[in-house]
Amino acid sequence: MSDNEEQVTFESADAGAAMTYPAQCSALRKNGHVVIKGRPCKIVDMSTSKTGKHGHAKVNLVALDIFTGKKYEDVSPSTHNMDVPNVRRSEYQLVNIDDGFLNLLKKDGDSKDDVKVPEGELGEKIQADFDDGKDLMISILEAMGEETCVSYKEAPQGA
Prior knowledge:
Blueprint: E1 20-24, E2 33-36, E3 39-49, E4 58-65, E5 71-77, E6 81-85, E7 88-98, E8 101-105, E9 111-116, H1 121-131, E10 136-143, E11 146-154
Antiparallel strand pairs: 1-6, 2-3, 3-4, 4-5, 7-8, 7-10, 8-9, 10-11
């Protein structure tokens, strides 16, 4: 290496490899997940067109962003791969609600306090039931480095 060349060092970075996996378009199913325009989405409608004179059958996808609810559409040849997000659902016990964030208790006893109270009716119901002194279990959906509260239920007594 000469004196005028810079040495490039790479910081350890998450390339997102574990966040998605490839799947052939023809293997995708309604109510499954797919990444469209870099967003994790749930497929709400899909149709396949017949092969044309010049090629592949096309898959038309209509999907909703699992975090924002925004609608996305995409068309792709059925033989091409698309990214599918690794989606994980976890349940935590609600300990407190503080400054718009849920204070949750993990199974190992650690606390998790980085999930916002959901907006709208779900957040209002969680707040009301918590204020009534009910023990609540919160379902958190995680995908591609994002997470949100998607539902809750009253914890069984003696849990």
